[in-house]
What does this fold into?
Amino acid sequence: MAATQSNTVAPSATEYGGDEISALVLDPGYSVVRGGFAGEDVPKSVVPSFYGIVSSNGHRRHLYGESAIHTPLPNIEIGNPVGENGIVEDWETATNLWEYAITSRLTNTKPSNPMTNGLNEKTDEIKQEMEGVETTGRPLEENPLLMTESPLNTGKGREKPIEIAMENWGAPAFWLARSGVLSAFSAGKASALVIDIGASSTCVTPVHDGMMLRKGITRSPLAGNYISDQLRLIFSTSQPSIPLTPHYLINSKTPVDAGAPSQATYRTFPPGTEPHPSFRALQEERILTEFKESVVAVWSPGRLGGHNQQGGTNLDVARTQNARPFEMPDGYNQLFGVERYRAVESLFDVKMAASDASHPAPPPSQTLPALVQQSLAGVDVDVRPHLLANIVVVGGSSLIYGLNDRLKQELEALYPGPRVRIFSPGSVVERKFSSWIGGSILASLGTFHQMWISKKEYDEHGPGIVEKRCK
It folds into this structure.
C-alpha cells in the first residue's frame, strides 16, 4: 500500500485538490458500493451493487438504488456488474452504478443529457438545447478519488478505474488501494492477517508494514451467499419443507401456531408481467439475511459433528440448547435448534455441509482454518507469529454470532505455540465498512497528498502508471 514514491515531482495543490478540497473514497463490492468523503467516520452513500433491468418499447433500461431493485415492476430482471470473485465483469454498467453512488449523495452535478439518461425519447430539440452538457457536468472535477480493489484484481481491472476517473469523471487525482490493506489500517495496524468474510467470497490477506504479501493471499467461496445456499438446502429437506416466500408475493397473512402451515393470500401478476426469477432470488436473499442476523450462530466449543468431554456428541447437546424463533413473510414460524448451527458449520468442518446433486460439499481446503493455514504457508516464517498475533476479521458475514470465538479455537489447535489474537470491531458499521474506513483515514492524511497520481501524470504515462505507483 505504502508504494514507493516516484521520482516525478509531487503534484501541486491545484492538480490534486490539496487540503482545501476533500477527496472521495469509493469502495465497490459484490453486495454494495460504499462512497463518502475522506476524513469522515462512515460512508454517506451506500448503494446496492445489484441493479434492475426493465424493457420498454424494445429498449433495456437500468435502474439503480435500493428502492429500484426491490419494486416488482413488470418483467424486472436483476443483474450485478461484479462477479462472485470480486472482479468487475461489466465495466459499462459498473461505471454507471459507481457514478450513481457518487452523484446521488455526494456531489451536485449538472444535469446530464436527457438523450442518454434513459428517461426520454430522442428528439432533435433536446439535442440542440443540451449540446455540450456532458462535458461540463463531470462529477469529480473538484475531488480526488481513492478507490479500493480486490486483493486478486487483474491488470485490466487495475487500469480501468483510473481511466474512468480521469476521462469520464474528470477527477484531478487518483489512487488505487487494496481492500485488505485498508482494513488493516482501519484497525490501526500496519501489519495484520486480514480475514474478510463478505457476501460472495472469503479472502485472507497478509499485510506487512503496509504492503500486501501477494503470495499469501487465499480465497474461498464459503461466505455469506454460501451460507444462504446452505439454509435453502436445510429448509427444502426439512420434514415438512419450510417455505421461502418473499414479501412482494404476500397480500395478507393470518397468525398460525409454530410449525403449522401458513395461511396467507398471495399476490398474482397478469400473464407476461411477472418479475424475472432473479428478482425473486434477490428478495429471498433479504429473508435469508435477516435469518442469518437473528438466528444463525456458530457452534462452540469443539466441532458440531464431534464428541464432547462427557462422551456424547455435540449434535445431541445442540438439540438441547434453547431454540430461536423466526417468522417467514407468509406467517409460517418455527423454532430453530440444531439447524441454526449446521448452516454455518461447514465454514469450519465440511463434513457437516448440507449437499445435493447440484450443491456438492466443498473441499476441506476452502474452510476458514485451511485458508489461514495456506496464507501463512505463503509468507516468510519470521513473519507468521506476528501475523497470528494480529488477525483482523471484517466483512458483513463475519457478524454471525460466535464466529470469532470458534475461529480462535480452531487456529489455536493448528498453532499451539504462537499466541493467536483476533481483533474485530464491535461496531456493525466498522465491520461492514472496514476497507472504506481505512481509505477514509489514508486519504485524509497530509503525508498522503504526495502519493496521488495527478491528471498531468496520467496524461503523460497513461493508465499503466497504476501498476508502477499503486503497489
Notes: Confidence is low (pLDDT under 50) at residues 1-11, 13-20, 122-136. The radius of gyration is 24 Å. The first helix runs from residue 13 to 16. DSSP finds 18 helices and 19 strands in the chain.
